[in-house]
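Changelog-adjacent note: as of this version, every example in the card shows the full chain rather than a window. The one below runs 100 residues end to end.
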Amino acid sequence: MLVCENCKTEWTWKQTLKSSFVLTTSMTCPYCGEKQYATPKSKKRTFLLNMLILLPLLLQALFEMGVWTTFSLMIGFFILVMISMPFWMSVQNEETFKIM
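Full-length structure tokens:
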């Protein structure tokens, strides 16, 4: 779960999931109100988890699965990702930009 770097309080699963759906780059700690930012490692993890949802499309192309099987797998992966995503996230006090 997320742990605020400022107040060292662990967020609940529900708070973490809710904060991951915001469109801004910052998440506000529900306990101290300070802004927290996803770490670069956390951004990579969540990107890869989100790509897992699209994996059935690749499997369909390789193994000629049916549309309903592919759709069911995508829904299953979506649920799996939403349940597990808060456990893979971490935050820090400052936003870092990695320039390639």
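Structural remarks: The helical segments are 13-19, 40-52, 55-63, 67-88.
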